[in-house]
């Protein structure tokens, strides 16, 4: 009888452990990553590039009309960043745009 109780106790402990392991390892839905993956596509939303007057502007991707003209002068950037901005720097989400403006406009 003691042996049956011991086997049942061990079996219950193992089953409880497996159940707990399944609960802990089960992925929880992460809505923030779902939203960011929807926002980020293969095609950029914006392109930042230098205008002829030497300031940076943000263009909707594929447009020649600037949506935002910044006060950021191309000459104030490091050489590497200047080269990027002359070619055009893609931004893939609204969050990228906000981060860019915060980083470069300070």
Folded structure, characterized:
With 106 residues, this protein is α+β, with helices and mostly antiparallel strands. It has 2 domains: 2-28; 42-104, no CATH class. The chain has helices spanning 2-25, 31-39, 79-87, 94-104, and strands at residues 46-50, 55-60, 68-73, 89-91. Strand 1 and strand 2 form a beta hairpin. It is globular, with a radius of gyration of 27 Å. Mean pLDDT is 75; it is low at 6-21.
Uncertain spans, ≥5 residues at pLDDT below 50? 6-21
Q: How much of the polypeptide forms β-strand, as a percent range?
A: 15-25%
In DSSP terms (H or I, runs of 4 or more residues), the helix count works out at 4
**Total discrete domains:** 2
Strand line-up of the largest beta sheet: 3-2-1-4
Quickly give the structural class: alpha+beta
Taking all residues together, what is the mean pLDDT? 75
Main beta-sheet annotation: 4 strands, antiparallel
List its salient traits.
2 domains, 106 residues, 4 helices, 50% helix, alpha+beta, 19% strand, four-stranded antiparallel β-sheet
Describe the structure in brief.
The protein is an alpha+beta fold and 106 residues long.
Topology:
Elements: H1 2-25, H2 31-39, E1 46-50, E2 55-60, E3 68-73, H3 79-87, E4 89-91, H4 94-104
Antiparallel strand pairs: 1-2, 1-4, 2-3
């Amino acid at each position: 009888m003691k042996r049956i109780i011991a086997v049942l106790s061990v079996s219950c402990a193992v089953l409880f452990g497996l159940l707990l392991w399944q609960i802990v390892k089960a992925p929880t839905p992460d809505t923030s990553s779902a939203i960011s993956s929807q926002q980020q596509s293969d095609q950029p939303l914006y392109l930042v590039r230098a205008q002829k007057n030497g300031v940076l502007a943000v263009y909707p991707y594929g447009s020649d009309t600037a949506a935002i003209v910044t006060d950021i002068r191309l000459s104030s950037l490091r050489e590497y960043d200047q080269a990027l901005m002359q070619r055009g720097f893609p931004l893939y989400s609204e969050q990228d745009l906000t981060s860019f403006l915060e980083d470069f406009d300070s």
